[in-house]
Amino acid sequence: MSTTNCYHCGEDCANTPIDFDDKSFCCNGCKTVYEIFSTNNLSYYYDIQSAAGATPKIVEGKYDFLASESIVEKLTEFNDGAMQIVNLYIPHIHCSSCIWVLENLNKINPAVSNSQVDFPKKTVRITYASDITSLKDIVLLLAHIGYEPYISLDDYDQKKKSVNRSLLYKLGIAGFAFGNVMFLSFPEYFDLASNKTNGGEYWLNEYEGVFRWLMFTFSLPVVFYAGKDYFISAFKGLRSKILNIDVPIALGILVLFVRSTLEIIFDWGPGFFDSLTGLVFFLLLGKFFQQKTYSFLSFERDYKSYFPIAVTRILSNGKEETTQIYTIERGDRLLIRNEELIPVDGILINGNAKIDYSFVTGESEPVYKTSGDKIFAGGKQLNGAIEMDALKTVSQSYLTQLWSNAVFQEDKSSKFQTLTDSIGKRFTIFVLSVAFLSAGFWIYFDSSKALNVFTAVLIIACPCAIALASPFTLGNMLRIFGRKKFYLKDTQTIEQLAQIDTAIFDKTGTITTSKKSVATYEGMQLTEEEESLLKNTLRASNHPLSRILYDLLSEQNIETLDEFEEHIGKGIEGTLKDSRIKVGSANFVGKNQTEASESTAVHISTNEIYKGCFVFKNEYREGISELFNAMSKTIQLAILSGDNEGEKQRLEQLLPKLTPLYFNQKPSDKLQFIKSLQEQGKKVMMVGDGLNDAGALAQSNVGIAISENVNIFSPACDGILDATRFTELFSYIVASKKAIKIIKWSFILSLAYNVVGLYFAVTGQLEPVIAAILMPLSSVSVVAFTTVATNLLGKKLK
Amino acid sequence: MSVIYLLLAISICVAIVFFIAFIISVKSGQYDDSYTPSVRMLFEDELVKKAPEKKSEPIQLNKSLNN
Fold first, then answer.
1. Considering A737, A754, A787, which residue would you say is the last residue of a domain?
2. What three-state secondary structure class fits A223?
């Protein structure tokens, strides 16, 4: 049987395609979007990329808070009463069709004067006339065409960010000056050893001064603007008594500049302005290359990125009002609609709660709560509206108070000494001693050359190539990992990853998948007739669990049921001839649930007699056993789980022997556990997924978040790993170790160049042209070596 | 020989013009998103072509791709 795919979203239309305009749609939502597009002359959308759309999920009242003036004021970038500009994050942006339709919004809503998509960031910047339309209308329009923007508390708190483009300016200035100084150095290159006194080329000597002072002018912005970060960093390092790599660099730049200036003032020679500007340009190029950012990912998220801006509060007189969530106080009555997030801990008062805690724990199966039960912040209500009483304020809730821990205020990167810095320290000491020794030697033999040699050593030993080795190697590794769906925050993370000796894993959602496709039956044996009835009843239901169970059961004849009824949130009921089957929750089929079951189960009764249940098991990711066995040879492993010990035996079978397993760990326990390991001198990697791991991820040396959908969810971390690549984790760690080896090899390579350069410097023969050749040559060969080596490394990765 | 001053002045002026153009383009955010414009520039042409013959063949193509 061939399946029909939805013309709009490409999903399988299942049993009931909706035909419209000769095309099939999987649901009315998709059909509506198609209608909107085709009536507004936007059907070109489907020509650029087929089936690019998303099914709109519109929840009544979800965006009511956008009617509030103060919230609109906070969200918009620009607001002058008649015109507003807003920048919205839309996770669904994924292809050129998306760009096209979002940039043609004005065909649907003429009040939109301009909309511009930033594809890498997945944002759209919309300018609209706010006296004709409103932010709420715009957001609703986007939601109706399947491009629902993601608006969270984070957007509300955010100060309007200014983009930092200073590196681009600096790179531009250094490149500009480098090119011009090279150009102006040509007369000197052609006319090396001559000057006016020994009768050189007339016009080269005549205008020598002009060329030299022009070069000096060009080098000023390079030293004082483009290179200022090196001076600042070197100064900071010295103040805290650390010799970082920027100390010899800053020293090199300074000496180059001062010596060159003196040379042209006293007409000793042409100076080293070409080397100086080239050095700064190459160094900045390295910085620029290292600065690979995944702009659509965020590594600094906290709970604010997941929490809504506003909720509905029910006042004592029964009226509803939209309130900003920071203003919620203890005892407030809140209305949580379908698909809304619970912002604070509270007690359920009214309605049937079916809460999805996947943001918090990674467990995808929702839990059911009845009135009087305690519910926790971070859960998402999935089943109609509920009312709750707030027990705490937002920042004091069980989950959110984790963020008051000091670990979230610290900057991890400042504590870590990179390989370049540790080498830089020894290098600086070495260079300074060579400089002083050779200067001392020349004072003894020929004191006129002493200063010349001293400065020449500092110039030629400037560790340009060493400083470039690490950014180019790690920057390239970062890109290679990115292509393998392993996204790291910065290059430093690779160095940290290479040093890991302990790896801690969360259980639910990290080593288990969110998909449930294994079920075991417990209870009375079903007769053949009952099994057939069960299968036919399940066939009619669209509930995800029904569909999984349907696929698991053996093939049966298709029979049409006499009666079928679906009770939303409870279960399904089917009748054929004189047998009647009920499938669903325990209460629905008539079983009194006594013990609180942690696992997901589908209960069955026929003719009001309880038969048994299918228990869905957490499925472990494929290949984790092999992964853990490979890892355990070099890395200490442990599992930290927030769940009970129910899965202990299965885990023990999967994992290498004697792997420590810890259960019932609270978010703060996980953080403390990592901290205590670090106090024993361990370098810890934490692999987790939910917000409950956020503390541990922040505390660990490397926090890796596993994500089923990279675009949507991940807590603050150092790296995000696509769940499909989980089994490759160990090979990525090994690759990081090899990357560090590549850096060490390129250090040796650049040291070889330095030795050659030092020979010229120490013997007092350093001509500007030698410096001008040697410096770029060493830089270029180091860059070429690291690029080739890392690409070879990347090819071996799966 | 003082023509060399003129030549130098011209060459530096030209260089500075390009440099200013670079600064202006960075400032106006042209380097912030280096991907979207590459897609966007392909749209305009297609739009003009599309206007007379709406709902053309690509629909068939899509269907065969999906199955």
1. A737
2. helix
Pair A179, A236 in one domain: yes
Tell me the sheet residues that pair with A381.
Answer: A355
Of residues A372, A302, A312, the one with CA closest to residue A341: A312
State yes or no: ipTM above 0.95: no
Q: What element of type H or E holds A179?
A: helix A166-190
pTM: 0.76
Q: Looking at residue A382, which CATH number applies to its domain?
A: 2.70.150.10
**A43-53, pLDDT tens digit by residue?**
778 877 777 77
pLDDT digits (tens, 9 = 90+) for A513-543: 766 566 777 777 778 778 888 888 877 776 6
A44/B50 CB distance under 8 A: yes
Residues A630 and A693 in one domain: yes
Structure tokens belonging to residue A393: 């304020």
Name the domain count of chain A.
6
Mean pLDDT value across residues A128-157: 82
Q: Which of A279, A274, A269, A256 is nearest to A218 (CA)?
A: A274
State residue B55's pLDDT score: 40
Nearest to B46 by CA among A23, A8, A53, A96: A96
Is A409 among the domain residues? no
H helices of A540-683, where? Answer: 544-552, 586-589, 624-632, 648-654, 667-679
> Which DSSP symbol is given to A724?
G
Cβ–Cβ gap B15/A180 under 8 Å: yes
- Indicate whether A414 belongs to any domain: no
Give the domain CATH number at A611. 3.40.1110.10
Residues A192 and A278 in one domain: yes
Digit-coded pLDDT (tens) for A412-432? 656 677 788 788 788 888 888
Residue B57 in any domain: the answer is no
pLDDT of B62 over the 60 cut:
no
Interface check A169 vs B, CB under 8 A: yes
Residue B66 within a domain? no
State the average pLDDT over residues A66-94.
82
Spell out which residues of chain A touch residue B47, defining contact as CB-CB under 8 Å: 44
Which domain does B39 fall in, by range?
3-51
Contact status, residue A493 vs residue A292, Cβ threshold 8 Å: no
**Domain extent for A628:** 475-513+620-737
Within the 4-63 window of chain B, which residues sit less than 8 Å (CB to CB) from chain A?
4-5, 8, 11-12, 15, 19, 22-23, 26-27, 29, 31-33, 35-36, 39-40, 42-43, 46-47, 50, 54-56, 58-59, 61-62
Report the pLDDT value the prediction gives residue A356, as an integer from 0 to 100. 78
Contact of A436 with chain B, judged by CB distance below 8 Å, is answered with no
